[in-house]
Write a structure and sequence with these properties.
It contains 16 helices and 14 strands. It is α/β, with parallel strands linked by helices. It folds into two domains: 211 residues, Rossmann fold; 177 residues, Rossmann fold, CATH 3.40.50. The two termini are 13 Å apart.
Length: 404
């Protein structure tokens, strides 16, 4: 079976999506599929890709095709990039044959156009992988406000779900959202994101990465990931909690990553005059286990109103590191429920700095409790979200689609 894996971002780009899509491509290739990744040029081009508009490379068992797209963090620029990437995906349809499967990692929903043509002209199967609920997330964030634009985006969403043979969602909340929009149950498959629990595992807090960044000897509350529209308000409230904790010299908040909203978060920290917050760029993936091990608490922020529209894959990575998770999420959200039911962390309202500060104080005062929460987190993620298990489920889903 040939699988065309469409993803906007792929290694060596930073973030969890490129890592997950590389692991999926390698897993499917190892399972005997002919895999072709259809993606964009890395946002930081380097010498290898500088000046190129198209690239085709062998990645050791599968092919990676890259199309040029503008690299900008601004909303309009991102929309342009989505459209340009979709045009590249349309060009790639020339190689699609009957019986192939198009794996579409959304957003962008514009990928519905090549999916429609592949089904109509090439009789290919379509698997839509929903990572964020769009356009709901853009509407909730205030990025999409024009009534005509909202109506068009919702119609596009319905169209994409309608043409899909199967839709893979990463959480129960996502499944409920799609069912509420009229998507038939038979189309929906619950396949969570995963984590390589062999690569990310508990380690000593005092390590070279911790010492390099001055984290040794501090009580570290860390966020590591993309700073996006789903979390920037909650991160801002976390900074206000840091202000409340500024009289406790051992407490250090660390924000690691890049993204659309990073500058806004940095400006908020500067406005609050915070001396107990450290910003770091994305760190090399090889350093991730030691980076997470240098923390005492790992922060998963989700803005109120968006907790049902996005489930960060970083949550499972944090759990694999064996550290307690402080989830800034609405009480009824899937993230808050997981932390509570599996006893692997603490949830605090994402818009309540005092509650966030109290949660940090409570965890700082209870090392035995932190250790127990971290052990529970590690055990559950190995049982439920280990890479090999989830990739086997994807293999089975793809095979079932072409067997019909």
């Amino acid at each position: 079976m040939r699988v065309f894996l469409h993803t906007m971002y792929y290694l060596p780009d930073f973030g969890s999506a490129p890592v997950l899509m590389d692991e999926l491509a390698r897993g499917l290739a190892a399972a005997g599929h002919e895999v072709e990744v259809v993606t964009t040029m890395p946002r930081e081009r380097g010498e290898e890709f500088r000046g190129l508009f198209y690239s085709r490379r062998d990645a050791g068992g599968f092919t990676v095709k890259r199309f040029w797209a503008p690299a900008t963090p601004r909303p309009l620029g991102r929309l342009l990039a989505w459209n340009v990437y979709t045009a590249g995906a349309l060009v790639n349809l020339l190689s699609v044959r009957p019986g192939d499967v198009l794996f579409l990692r959304t957003p962008p929903l514009q990928l519905g156009l090549p999916a429609f043509l592949a089904r109509t002209l090439g009789r290919a199967r379509v698997l839509v992988n929903v990572q964020d609920i769009h356009p709901d997330l853009a509407i909730e964030s205030g990025i999409l406000r024009n009534p005509a634009g909202i109506a068009f985006a919702k119609a596009l969403e319905r169209w994409v779900y309608g043409l899909a043979d199967r839709i893979a969602v990463i959480s129960d909340d996502f499944a409920r959202n799609l069912r509420g929009k009229g998507v038939p149950e038979r189309k929906i498959a619950l396949l969570p994101n995963w984590v390589d629990t062999d690569a990310v595992r508990p380690g000593p807090k005092d390590n070279p990465v911790a010492r390099r960044h001055g984290l040794a000897g501090k009580f570290v509350v860390m966020y590591s990931g993309t700073i996006s529209i789903s979390s920037d308000r909650a991160l801002g409230r976390a900074l206000e909690a840091a202000k409340l904790l500024s009289g406790e010299p051992d407490v250090l908040f660390v924000v690691v990553g890049e993204g659309l909203r990073k500058e806004a978060v940095r400006e908020r920290a500067a406005a609050l005059g915070l001396g107990n917050v450290l910003f770091l760029p994305f760190q090399p993936y090889r350093d991730l286990p030691a980076l997470l091990a240098s923390s005492d608490v790992l922060l998963v922020p989700l803005d109120r109103g968006k907790s049902d529209l996005s489930v960060p894959s970083k949550l499972y990575t944090f759990m694999a590191a064996g550290r307690p998770v402080l989830g800034l999420a609405a009480p009824g959200s899937e993230v808050a429920a997981l932390l509570r039911e599996r006893d692997c962390g603490v949830a605090a309202p994402p818009d309540d700095p005092a509650a966030i500060a109290a949660a940090v104080r409570g965890l700082a005062a209870s090392p035995d409790r932190r250790r127990a929460l971290g052990l529970n987190a590690r055990a559950y993620v190995v049982e439920r979200f280990a890479k090999d298990k989830v990739l086997r489920d994807y293999d089975m889903l793809l095979r079932s689609m072409v067997a019909r």
